[in-house]
Write a structure and sequence with these properties.
The structure holds two protein chains of two kinds. By secondary structure, chain A is mainly α. Chain A is 69% helix and 0% strand. Chain A has a domain at 29-52 and 59-235. Chain A has nine helices and no strands. In chain A, helix 7 packs across helix 9. The longest helix of chain A is centred in the last third of the chain and has 46 residues, at 205-250. By secondary structure, chain B is an all-alpha fold. Chain B has one domain. In chain B, 76% of the residues lie in helices and 0% in strands. Chain B contains ten helices and no strands. In chain B, helix 3 (58-76) runs antiparallel to helix 4 (83-104), helix 7 (126-154) crosses helix 8 and helix 9 runs antiparallel to helix 10. Chain B starts with a helix and ends with a helix. Classes of the chains: A mainly alpha, B mainly alpha. The interface between A and B is medium-sized, with 31 and 34 residues.
């Protein structure tokens, strides 16, 4: 996936500039995207033509190959966001905060999809859109509600540095909350439904293979989307820095003072896309005659 | 906000009482800073003193709880409740009353410079977390001293007497969890725009396991037959939750203070 070193400009975003430590975001993105498309296509073919029909639920059970990987990847993404947050707090490198943000953002989107597919599955097999006796679904909703406050918390803080720190603290706490919450909710629910589809151990081999493939495909999709978002944020930050540099050169201001002042004047500087912009513009300002 | 006059005064008293042990800033030789326990004790004393003088949190929380019981009476159209309905009403009321206290917990420090004063002192920063959590725990205990008898008087069908020992154990474990999470969430939310909203939004999902454990453990205590005590697995769940989040909050709290 990372093998596109033959094309140094793997993505057009990174071509015009050597972005220093930010330059590697777009590399490998085309290869990763193609791999994702191929794996997901193969998986869909497996789901519809290779995996056997389930005896009780019939065709409806196919949603299992979408819903469960979505949920697993979303939960892993949440925990991963917490790990990245911990690395950010240790290293104070704002790139880790950005990764944490992107992981949680993508996981939120996956979580919405998992909730919707889970609801459809519940309606199809149990006749209700929402089933309180299914602990996984309920815990998932609680986790989702918690992470839904991540962005409101983040964007309610003005100072970018403090914003990154507080978001990391939230990400770690919430990441630890995910397993705790699953324990508590599972304890609270009697096992009304036999969990035949809960693990791969009691699946027939063809189903298990299809499930693992779809899990792999979903993980690739998650990685690709995260990479796209990181690259886009990076490109936007670079563009902003370049524009600022050009403005500074056009105006007769000293560029350092201007960049600092612009950062302070903007109320929307709370967005995490601005973090590298601050660093980039500072670096750009410090580089003479480039 | 009546806290405005009192907080700097009490903080000043604190600084003066420690003043003789602190070297002047120009001196290069520093005496040992006070230990964690001494700092926590001093900060906790300050918290309780401020609360006693301003009466900002606890009376409001208690009044809220009692009013909520009245609201439940009319909303459910029931003169008495028992079993899991009773336990649910008690826990929801206590949780929402606690969130009122959580939202007020750091407001005086953020607005009146309490954070700055604390950060200037040569003490362990974790002391602030421990003292705030203990203060919130004390508020919750006082709240329950009012709310539980009021609940028993107004709504509860079965008598409280037999249930009391079990209830005390469950409430103690639940309070620790609420205090730990409440302190962390209050510190996260206090320096944001719309902090009252964010405090509640963050605290509620994080406290769902406490409500599950607390309400499930309390339900058999309030049953008409007094069949059993609280199930051990719920007490264990609450204890595990308190331990895990106590450690996490203790470890992470420092990062919220750095500026």
């Amino acid at each position: 996936m990372q093998s596109s070193s033959r094309h140094p400009a793997g993505s057009p975003h990174t071509k015009p500039r050597r972005g220093g430590d930010f330059g590697s975001y777009g590399r490998g993105l085309p290869a990763l995207s193609i791999a994702t498309v191929v794996v997901i296509t193969v998986t869909l073919a497996l789901v519809f033509f290779y995996a056997p029909l389930e005896a009780e639920q019939g065709f409806l059970q196919k949603i299992f190959y979408v819903h469960v990987p979505l949920a697993i990847i979303a939960l892993c993404g949440f925990v991963l966001g917490g790990v990245f947050g911990a690395v950010h707090l240790r290293t104070r490198d704002s790139r880790w905060d950005m990764r944490s943000y992107v992981a949680i953002h993508m996981s939120l989107i996956f979580a919405v999809a998992a909730l919707i597919t889970g609801s459809i599955w519940a309606k199809g097999s149990w006749g209700h859109w929402w089933v309180w006796s299914e602990p996984t679904l309920v815990s998932f909703l609680i986790v989702f509600l918690l992470y839904a406050t991540y962005q409101p918390l983040r964007f309610a803080i003005e100072d970018p540095e403090r914003q990154a720190r507080y978001a990391s603290v939230f990400a770690i706490t919430a990441g630890a909350f995910v397993p705790m919450n699953f324990i508590a909710v599972r304890l609270s629910t009697a096992y009304l439904h036999p969990r035949v589809l809960g693990s791969t151990s009691n699946l027939p081999p063809r189903m298990a293979f299809t499930f693992l493939m779809s899990l792999f495909g979903m993980a690739l999709l998650f990685a690709t989307l995260c990479k796209y978002e990181l690259t886009a944020k990076h490109a936007r930050a670079q563009l902003r820095a370049l524009r600022r540099q050009a403005d500074a050169r056009a105006g007769a201001h000293s560029s350092a003072g201007w960049a600092g002042g612009a950062q302070r004047r903007r109320p929307r500087s709370a967005a995490p896309t601005q973090l590298p912009a601050t660093r980039m513009s500072a670096r750009a300002a410090g580089r003479p005659g480039s | 906000m009546s806290a405005g006059t009192d907080v700097p005064v009490s903080a000043g008293t604190e600084a003066r009482s420690r003043g003789e042990r602190r070297a002047p800033p120009s001196s290069s030789v520093r005496p040992d800073p006070p230990g964690l326990a001494a700092t926590v004790a001093a900060l906790l004393r300050k918290e309780l003193l401020v609360e006693l003088r301003t009466l900002e949190s606890v009376p409001g929380m208690s009044l809220f709880a009692v009013t909520t019981f009245v609201v439940f009476h009319f909303a459910l159209n029931r003169n008495s409740v028992e079993g899991d309905l009773a336990s649910g009403i008690l826990w929801v009321t206590l949780l929402f009353a606690a969130i009122l206290g959580v939202n007020r917990l750091f407001v005086a420090d953020a607005e009146e410079g309490g954070f700055d004063g604390f950060l200037l002192a040569p003490v362990d920063r974790s002391a602030m977390f421990v003292s705030k959590a203990l203060a919130l725990l004390a508020y919750l205990v006082v709240l329950e001293l009012v709310a539980v008898p009021a609940f028993s008087l107004l709504l509860l069908g079965p008598s409280l007497g037999q249930a009391l020992p079990g209830l005390l154990a469950v409430l103690a474990l639940g309070d620790i969890g609420v205090a730990v999470i409440g302190t962390l969430v209050a510190a996260l939310a206090v320096r944001t725009r719309a902090r009252d909203l964010l405090g509640a939004l963050l605290a509620l999902p994080l406290l769902v396991p406490v409500v599950i454990g607390g309400a499930r453990a309390t339900a058999p205590l309030f049953s008409l037959t007094h069949a059993t005590g609280p199930a051990v697995r719920w007490l264990l769940t609450l204890g595990l939750y308190d331990l895990v989040f106590g450690l996490i909050a203790f470890a992470l709290f420092d990062f919220l203070l750095e500026d």
